[in-house]
Records
---
Amino acid sequence: MQISDTHFGTERPAVVEALVRLVHEQAPEVIVVSGDITQRATRKQFDAARVFFERLGSIPMLIIPGNHDIPLFNIVARLFAPFRNYQRVCGTDLEPVFSSARWLIVCVNTTRAYRHKDGEVSSAQMKRVAELLQTAAPEQLRIVVVHQPVAVINDRDRDNLLHGRNAAVRCWAAAGADIVMGGHIHVPYVLPLHESHHHLPGRLWAVQAGTAVSKRVRQEAANSVNLIRYSDSQQPRHCVLERWDCTVPEIGFQCFNTHTLICGMMNDRV
C-alpha cells in the first residue's frame, strides 16, 4: 500500500479512522509512505503521525521525508538539523530498502534543506538505486520511491517536477525498475514513462498518490491511497494498481479504479 502526504496537523480525523480500517482489512505485506508526513514538521505533528503509524500494527513500513517534514520558519533547525523531528518518529534511515520474495522497494530522499518545496535527486543517489535494482531477482517487482513527481498530467504542476528526473528515469529504467512512486501534488494518476521517454529499454510506470488523510485535497481528487497486487508467478510480469478513495468517511475507502501495469523489457511477449 502506498500512503502519501498525510500532512498531520491538517488531518481529517474521520478519514484517519477510515484508513486505519482499510489497512487492517487489506493487510498489505508492506506499506510505503512517500513523504509529507506533517504539515510543518513540529514535534506535536510528528507525535500524531507516530500514533497513526502504531495503529497500523506490525506491517513493515518504508517512510521518506517530504519538503513539509523539515522546518520552514526555524532557519537554524532547517540548516543544521532539518530531519531531527522526522527521525525521532520515522527512524534515522532516510532511504530505506525492502526486499522479499516478491518485492524490491528502494527509497530515495529527494528533500533538500536549501530548496523551499522542490525536490532533487543526485547522481550518487541515481547510482545507488541502480546498483540495488541490478541485484533484483527476476520475479521481484522493482519499485523506486521519491517524494516529488517524475512526470505530471497538468501543466500547472510542472514547477513541482523532481530536479534530475530525466537522468534518473533513464538510469533506473536501464537498471530494471518497474515503477517510480511519488506524491507531493495530491493528485493520483498513472503514466507510462516508456511512452514519453524515448529509447527506454523497459517499461517504467510513474505511480502518483493523492493525499491520504489531509483536508488539503485538490478539486479533482478525494483523499486516496494506492494498493498494488502482484503475484511473482505471473508471466509476463505485471501488477494491478488499485486507487482507493474516501469521499464519505463513514463509508470508508472504496476502490475507485484499477490499472494493469505490464512490466519488463519492451521485447517481452505480452
---
Amino acid sequence: MATQDRLIESTQELLWERGYVGTSPRAIQQRAGVGQGSMYHHFDGKPDLAAAALRRSAEQMRAVAQADLAGPGTAYDRVAAYLRRERDVLRGCRIGRMAQDPEVVADPRLRAPVEETLDWLRGRIAEVIAEGQEAGELRADAEPADLAAAVVAVVQGGYVLARAADGAEPFERAVRGVLALLAAHRTG
C-alpha cells in the first residue's frame, strides 16, 4: 500500500476511535509506520490529512449504503437491507461520530464530507421510498424525505444508544421499530 494511502487509512481508523482532537500526527505516523517527513510530503498537516480521511470514509460509506439501497427487491426490502446490514454497532458510524466532534463541526472543510454524506444518505433513501410509492408498494401519504430523515436518525441514534448501553440491543430494537413504522406504509 502506498504511503499516502497508509496515512489516510490510519487517520480514518484513529478518527473513528479517538475523534479529531485525540488523533495526533504522531499517532497517525506510528499507525501508518511512516516518519514525519513522509506525512508532510503528502499532506500540509493534520487538518489536510483529516479532510482526506473523512472524504475517503464518506466515499466508502456511500458505496456500502448504495449497494444495499440499489439491491434487489421492493423499496421496503432495500431500506431493510440497509438497516439490517452487519455493522460494528459499538464503534458507531465513522461519519456520524464526526458530527459529534466539536473540532470537526467548527471547521467547514472537515464538516463538509460529514454533512454531504448524511445529506446524500437521506436523499438516496428518500429516492428509494419515492420509487416504492410510484410503484404502488408504499402508501403515498407520507413525504419520502421525512421518512428518510427518520431512518437516518434512527440509525445514528441507535449507535448512540448502543454505545451508552455497551451492547447492540438498543440499536437492533431501534431498527426493528423503524422497520415496523415503514411496514405500516406498505400497500399490500
